[in-house]
Amino acid sequence: MRANTDWFSKAEWGVLCHYLGAPASSAGGAELSAEEWSRQVDAFDVKGLADQLESISAPYFFITIGQNSGHYCAPNDTYDCYVGISPSKCSRRDLVRDLYDEMSPRGIDLLVYLPSGAPAADPVAMERLGWEWGFEGGWPGGWGKPTGKRLVEFQLKWEAIMRDWSLRWGTKVRGWWIDGCYFADEMYRFPDPPNFESFAQALKAGNPDSLVAFNPGVKVPVVCHSEFEDFTAGEISDAFPVCPGRWLDGAQYQILSYLGETWGAGEPRFPDEFVLGYTKHVTSKGGVVTWDVPIAKNGLLPQAFLDQLTILARLD
């Protein structure tokens, strides 16, 4: 049974930010100590960001919990137990909880992003979680070809880590966008767990009504990757497809792309007219558009992107 996505469809559009210990999709972050990361997260201006999002009438906001560097913006005892890195690279501050506390009274819903694999630039975490590259080439040489490994030990640990965060936040988090589910046939399409179903159950442990999307990578046209996802991941880079309607194989249609030159970086790459026009095209058919924009270490968004997003108030 899929979760109800009516609220998501009515929201129409929202914002995602890659708040990470290194640039998105990079092998960086080794130079950033656990203490330096915690201090950075401690200094995140939650109120300032909430003020900015409220000023542009953003209905929802996605925050990355972490990515390749192994630095995460909330505590997780299960992760620390498995990985054994001390001091923990999970921040002292629960940034997700604090974002909710500031944004919820303003009517801004909160969703989170996380990869489906271990942090690719943290060899200690990778080894202790039981992760192996499910493809030839390894990091950072590209995705290459799948080797056919299911990685059951890793998946069971990763589901436990996801469950920990889900139970911690409960109904504060309304959705999950899970990156890197590229080799579904090798890792997730099985009748017995771990599989897409058990992964979704772990993500929904704290909130059965939360929405889940599993990202297959850039696919044009957009695809529904699993019967156990509630909305499409919809990752788009340079080709923007025609929206077929609100539903795609039973999942809520959603597009995710970046307004900058790449994920979380650069200056605005589109004229305002395109941003407004494409968002209006998708939302007029019941779909949803999420725009990625850069974010500073202090948690604030560049003015140029705020100015561009302000035009989306004209959707109605």
Care to describe what's here?
The strands form 2 sheets. A 7-stranded parallel β-sheet has the order 5-4-3-2-1-9-8. Strands 6-7 form a two-stranded antiparallel ribbon. By secondary structure, the protein is α/β, with parallel strands linked by helices. It is globular, with a radius of gyration of 18 Å. It is built from 11 helices and 9 strands. A hairpin with a 2-residue loop joins β6 and β7 (251-252). The two termini are 32 Å apart.
Based on the model shown, name its key terms.
11 helices, alpha/beta, 7-stranded parallel beta sheet, two-stranded antiparallel sheet, single chain, TIM Barrel, globular, 13% strand, 316 residues, 31% helix
Q: Which structural class do you get from the secondary structure elements?
A: alpha/beta
Q: Could you name the CATH class?
A: Alpha Beta
The number of E-state strands comes to 9
Please bin the fraction of helical residues: 25-40%
| Strand arrangement, major sheet | 5-4-3-2-1-9-8
The CATH architecture can be named as Alpha-Beta Barrel
Uncertain segments: 139-145
Radius of gyration: 18 Å
Task: Fill in the CATH topology.
Answer: TIM Barrel
Q: Report the β-strand fraction as a percent range.
A: 5-15%
Report the principal-axis shape.
globular
Distance between the termini: 32 Å
Q: How would you state the average pLDDT, rounded?
A: 95
Helix/strand order, N-terminal first? HEHHEHHEHHEHHEEEEHEH
What would you give as the CATH superfamily?
Glycosidases
> What oligomeric state is this?
single chain
**What's the main sheet like?**
7 strands, parallel
Number of domains: 1
State the helix count: 11
